[in-house]
Each structure stands twice: as structure tokens, then as C-alpha cells.
Description:
A: six-stranded mixed β-sheet, four-stranded antiparallel β-sheet, 11 helices, 43% helix, B: elongated
Amino acid sequence: MIEVKHIRKSFDDKVVIKDVSAVMDTGKCNLIIGSSGSGKTVLMKCIVGLFNPDAGDVLYDGQDFTHMTTQEKKDMRRQIGMLFQGSALFDSMTVEENIMFPLDMFTSDTRAEKQKRVDEVLDRVHLTDAHKKFPAEISGGMKKRVGIARAIVLNPKYLFCDEPNSGLDPQTSLVIDKLIREITIDFNITTVVNTHDMNSVMEIGDKIIYMYQGEKEWEGSNKEIIFNKNEKLNSFIFASDFLHDAKDMRMLEMRGKISDDRNMEDLLNK
Amino acid sequence: MFFNHFGKFLLMLKGMFTKPENHKMYWKELMHQCSELGIGSLGIVAVISVFIGAVSTVQTAYQLVSPIIPKETIAQIVRDTIILEFAPSLTCIVLAGVVGSKIASELGNMRVSEQIDALEIMGINTKAYLILPKILACLIMIPMLVILAMVLGIWGGRFAGEAANILSKETFDRGLLLEFVPYNVTFALTKAYTFAFIISGIPAYYGYNVQGGALEIGQASTRAVVTSCITILLADYALAALML
């Protein structure tokens, strides 16, 4: 479990995060959503320690990460895996070398043991024929999967994903979402996902935190988000007419007014 | 502004000195950098040195028109000019462009594409893992390249002397041994170590602290090379004034 307590962060005179508190549960996909510039990436970077917050605390299973020494932070970070928005794979290394890098750096395993672990995680992310390819030779979706494989190779307790679906087509996005969810459940880890993709919200959002202009505006689950009464959140998630209509249909369906496919079609034709 | 950058530069250097997470990986990275920055610059250093030596011989002979000055003096002047100035300073100014822009753009690209953040998240001290091996590699390889530049420069001068029918190889060799001051080599190597630190440290600082995108990487690279060249020239004068 990760607890965020009264985090504040500003750059020069611009306040980006204004007193945000939240709890990220273990074994669940915790989503931070919000429009561009709402502060979700800065919040995530404050949680993982890439930015030092101006005020507030971040607790990993009760341990105060914000006030740890540099060495303690380095030790803690070995329990953290992160998938970056652009995958952040090392250009000069092959897929296999990218994933083996944390093993080389932090374990004393033999070459065969490391190779076995690399094969396992690549198999886990459904990439079995990309071992010797360089990042420039693989697709965006494959890069994301390699990024996930590298993030989980040391069996982290906490997984962070910054915009895992950015630049991906809807089908590949679904694959990535499914993968993140499976890994969260299989390894019982605390996963925090930064996204503005509504598909992800509905697919994997066990817990959702909506950020608006640097503040936590709403918190709930993917079951609650459809029926929420928060105007700002609704204008964010139902930004398109299509989703607005879909919501209306869902509401009607829930009230039992849509009983068959014909009525659904009538509604769509209106 | 200058003190702000200088302070950050010193903090960057301080941040490099921590216990390595894995000695073997750091050694591997150091060897990789020695190969990339040192062996990779061998070609350009060799070509420049040979031609500078050759031009030195021809131009010195052109200026020494008096028949009472022995031909050996040409070799003496070429030798001392190459050892004292051309091999350390000119080679390092060229390397500031070749190696400096490579270091700045590599680190800048890693910063912009979040590769440095990825290493930080793994619990790796990126200053120690990315910058220290580059500085050490330059401190190891650049003095070697400077020695090579001395040898090739003198050889180029010797070759050009005979090819242009200015002086024979035997005369050139006699001139090389006349009034040779070994301290000149010590001075040249002191310059080489100083310039090696400038060539690696300044571009590393600019590259590591890039913010933005491709445009900013290019700007940082240019700024790194310009600052390195100016610093080399200032250090060159300071060392000459102090040591000669």
C-alpha cells in the first residue's frame, strides 16, 4: 500500500500539485486520471522520488520514503518498477540486454539463471521472438511490453505506469491494459497507472483518482465513475458525444428501459 | 549566471563519488567508454597530426631563408611546436568537437527520452554510472592520443621534409635530438590531462541537464563544444604562464 499525504509541488511560481492525499491499495490497479496539465505525471514523479515534493509525505507500506537517506531511497527503489510514457528503453541495447540490465546490476545470478529469468518475463508479456532486436526495430506496443518486462524482472512490490497507452491503437491498448491487470493480480503488487484513456479506466480501474488543476477532485472505482455527479469529472470522461450517448444508453439500460437490440438501434439512430 | 552553473557543475562532480552498485558493471561501462571515446577518435587524431606536422615543416622552412641557419633547426622547431602546442592543444580542440558533442548529445538524448529517469528508478546513481566512466575514459585515453599525435606529427614533418626536398631524413633526425628538453613532454601531458577533464566534464554537465526535446539537445551540444573550446584556450594560456 502506498499512502500519499498532503503532497505539494511547485515549479518556480507555478503550483502544480496542491495538497493531494490518497491511498493506493495493494493488489489493485490504482489509476490517476485527468486532462493534460492536471498534475498527474508530477504527482507520480513525486511518489517515485524523481521530484522532491515541497511538502507532504509518501509512505510505502508505512515507510516514509520522502525523508529517507539517499542510500535508503536507492534500496527502496529496487522494489519499484516503472513503465515510462516513451518506454525509456536503452537504445544501444537489445531487448534481451535491456531486460537483463537490472539483473546484471543488482543480482549475482549466473548467466544461465539470468537468461532463464529474461525468458520468463518476455514470455509473461507475450514476446518470445524479439530477444535480439533493438528498440528501434520493434513497434510501439512491443516497446511498452519490453518496458513492462524490464519493470517486473526484479519482482517489484510496486509498479508504476506513466501513460501506458499513449501512442497505441485501441486494440494494442487493450492488450497492455490486460497485461498490467494480470501482473497486478498474479504478483499481488501495488500498481499505479497514470492515464487519460477512458478504456483503461473502465477495464482496469479498481481505484480511480481524478486530478483537476493540481487537486484531487474525485475518488472512486470504475463502477462508480459512470454514475458520478461530479461536473468536472463528467466533462472530462464524457468529452465526446459518442461517450455521452453511450452513457445515456447505459443509464437507460440500467433502468430497464432498453430490453432488446431494436430499442438500442432506435436510440442510436436518434 | 556563471556561478550558478559552476556551483551545479561542482555538485554534479560531487554526486559522482558514491559506492558503485556493481563494480563489474561500472568497469564494463568504463571499458566501453574508453573504446567509444578513445579508439573512436583515433582516425581523426592521426589524420590531423600527420598533416599538421607536414605543414609545420614546410612553413618553417619557408620562413627560415637565411643560409647561416642550419637545416636541423627546422626539425627542432617542428618538434617543439608539435610537443608544446599542436599535439595537446589542437588535438584537444578537435576532440572537444568530436568527443564533446558525442557526450552532450548522448546524455541529452537519454535525459529527454527518460532513460536517465529509468536508471534512477532502478536505484542507480546516474551521475556515477553515466558521467564518471566518461570522464575517466577521457583522462585515460586523451593523453594517449596526445602522445600518438606527437609521434605522428613529427613523422608527418619528417616525411614532408624529404618529400618536398627541404631536408633529408637524416638531417631531420639529427635536429630532433638537438637540445631536446624532456620537461616539454611533461608540460604537454599536464595540458592533456587538464584538457581531457574539460572535454568530458563540461559536455557531460550540459548533456545531463538538458530540458526539452531535440532542439534543446542540439543547443546543449553546441554550447558544450563552444564552452569547452574557450575553456581549453583559457587553460592553455594559464598553464603556459604558470609552468613555462
